[in-house]
Amino acid sequence: MTGRFVWYEQMTTDTKAAIAFYSEVIGWKAEPFPSPQGGEPYNMWVASQGPLGGVMTLSEDAKKMGAPPHWMAHVEVDNVDSTIAQGKAKGGKVLVPPTDIPTVGRFSVFADPQGAAISVFKSATEMQPHDTTKLGEVSWHELMTTDYEAGFEFYSELFGWEQMDEMDMGPAGKYRMFGQGGSMYGGMMNK
């Protein structure tokens, strides 16, 4: 389903330390995923409902672009290439062009017009949704940006996200909750 968060990737400078940390703090297990043609080792994060993400070394290309160790959320789309074209037409910037991952799917990373990075993904196989109310699952997605209203408009046009609620946070401004199909995914506000 377009717009659903389906995978979470951690890019880090020390995968062993990350695995030790998240295994102890959250209880995730790390499970090696076979790398095609001897590529970089990749470990999947596995919770009680199965794999939910992965961890790998931050690439030299990413470091050269100024990327620090970070988490990247992947949003499911019907077509990576057309979603990226639509995002570019609306002011987004492609950071990683549409790329195939053999036997896994296709992805691309882009920055929205305010500069926040996110990935779009189309799996080669159907991905069953996780029950995000269970312990150890990713249950909330937050965007801190320079213009949350423009961000919401951008993502709602791209992914079909809907405004679920909005809360006045006083001097901090408004906090808009978003989701789709009756499921709340997270919130966004100005930083």
Structural class: alpha+beta
Determine the strand fraction and express it as a percent band: 35-45%
Unreliable residue runs:
none
- What is the helix content? 10-25%
Summed up, the helix count is: 4
Q: Give the termini distance in whole angstroms.
A: 29 Å
The mean pLDDT is: 94
**Tell me, what's the shape?**
globular
Question: How does this model look, in words?
Answer:
Helix content is 20%, strand content 44%. It starts with a strand and ends with a strand. It has four helices and twelve strands, in the order βαβββαβαββββαβββ. It has 191 residues and is an alpha+beta fold. Strand 3 (42-47) and strand 4 (50-57) form a beta hairpin. The radius of gyration is 17 Å and the shape is globular. The model has no long low-confidence stretch (mean pLDDT 94). It has helices spanning 15-25, 60-64, 80-89, 148-159; strands at residues 5-12, 29-33, 42-47, 50-57, 70-76, 93-101, 105-111, 117-123, 141-145, 162-168, 174-180, 183-190. The protein has an eight-stranded mixed beta sheet, with helices on one face. It has a four-stranded mixed beta sheet with strand order 9-12-11-10, with helices on one face.
